[in-house]
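Ligand: beta-D-galactopyranose. Inputs:
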Amino acid sequence: MRNLPTASLTRTAIAAASLALAGLAHAGEVEVLHYWTSGGEAKAAAALKATLQAKGDTWKDFAVAGGGGDSAMTVLKSRVVSGNAPSAAQIKGPAIQEWAREGVLTSIDSVAKANKWDAALPPTVAAIMKYKGNYVAAPVNVHRVNWLWINPEALKKAKAKAPTTWDEFFATADALQKAGITPVAHGGQPWQDFTTFETVVLGVGGADFYRKALVQLDQEALKSPTMIKAAETFKRIKPYTDKAASGRDWNLATAMVIKGEAGMQFMGDWAKGEFVAAGKRPGTDFLCMAAPGTAQAFTFNIDSFAMFKVKGDDRIKAQNDLAEAIMSPAFQETFSLAKGSIPVRLDVPMDKFDDCAKLSAKDFAATAKSGALVPSAAHSMAVPSAVEGALKDAVSQYWNSDKMSAQDAVAKIAAAAKAR
Ligand code: GAL
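Predicted complex:
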């Protein structure tokens, strides 16, 4: 550095120090509740933490393991009831309205307006994030749920093909079984059973039927022959899962497909985050396929963070910094590259994304036009929390029962849809 006279150096040092202190004076802490604890999820969560820290704020991690978020929501309720809510929590879909009605969420509308969120988001997404016209949650991404993940090596060993119909699916499952490979990697947890069930309903009945049954909770649709056929197809998958499936975490099921111990997995594209974290390449080491019968449909699951009322200017500013970080174009790209999702902002280029993500983005736009874009019931996007829980339990009971008929299961599911 050039030789500067001492006095000038001192002034420069004082200026630099006061700038830094000014920044620090506004540094605040944000406690964030989330359930991203698997390999791919943790990498994505780390990207959010780094983006916030770059703004000078402190990230207090409040991670509650358990895919699908059931445990996280239980812990959140106890924290809020005891008057000790975190700054932000991973809350999605109708639950945002439920929490807002409790009067515990805070508006981040100033951040949304300053950053023109309305122009950047699909209108349906913006509406989900608002309560009485003000943003109270920041959307992170768009996951597609109706995927089938496949190990092509396993297909080759079994001399089987990637299935596009349910008949082809069961033929491929038989071939994999004969080759000594577990046909379907599954984790026997209610949210995973429900994820598979909703994908089968979409594939057997189509998007309009799915919406009528699992979004509008129409009793006639829920008790219809189509729903019985979907229930039978769903249960027909069970014998192709392995004996140790009960209780298995979703990412350990994905690991079975990664290692070739299993041929296929029904799972949302957070599973792609696991393949990517393991250094696997789409099209070579794994295939991403729309689940049978669902190529023209898209079950969406949008992660978002709802913002809770907190005390202290520094914490409020840090909370606003988090909201701004989540919706920044750069973060939207970085996060989804690790998470397996696509950005929820419509203005983020897809150049860096792989073919699975590009297909997801294309289908997201196409199904928004065709009407085959449906909210995931299994991932808190479609129905009130109480109904989601009741449906999940009814489906899981059916999956685990050796005696329950499809007719009985459908009657239980229809009754569960009336839960309030
Ligand atoms: C979903 C969530 C995803 C992923 C998945 C597995 O509900 O939206 O981001 O975390 O659960 O935990």
